[in-house]
């Protein structure tokens, strides 16, 4: 989203062309049950429309401009537009069930990792799709965050880099849980990610990967 319209096919193609290891996207359900790729609950911030995604059908959402003439994609279109591994963030249990159907139908267990801020959504997708890799996301968390990840069956924690400590990383690693940091958009945060020994990081600027080889 730092260089192209957020959560659009154009942005995903750019990320893949930039050599990123994986592409992260966000999923909501439209009024008629389509897996719509957008971060917010409402369309206001990233399109020329207004109101909640859940109040519009896919056809109505398609009428909106998502930036530079891009249209709001559905998950299946992203699968066809790029070949990179995907990390799909789901907002609730209903989206987990819809995503599970697509993963099973298209045999995507090896390609798609599923993430959520909601423990129950992580648990549900793991129940529906045995073997799927899952990630528990947190912006603020307590001392039980590693236990929460394990209880939900998440192999990875995605934690806010601005609040992440070495203690949490070491605890997670000692329990066999990986840790990735978000959002790493500056050289200082890239240095921090490396100093903490993180297993990965997300960024809005794919060029930081190339620049970081020389300056971080």
Automatic annotation (TrEMBL):
Q: Which Pfam families match?
A: GDPD (PF03009)
GO BP: any one term = lipid metabolic process
Query: Per its UniProt entry, which superkingdom is the organism in?
Result: Bacteria
Q: Which GO terms of the molecular function aspect are on file? A: phosphoric diester hydrolase activity
What InterPro entries does its record include? GP_PDE_dom, PLC-like_Pdiesterase_TIM-brl
Entry's transmembrane regions: none
Q: Where is the GP-PDE domain?
A: 1-213
Q: What is this protein called?
A: Glycerophosphodiester phosphodiesterase
The scientific name of the source species is: Streptomyces anulatus (Streptomyces chrysomallus)
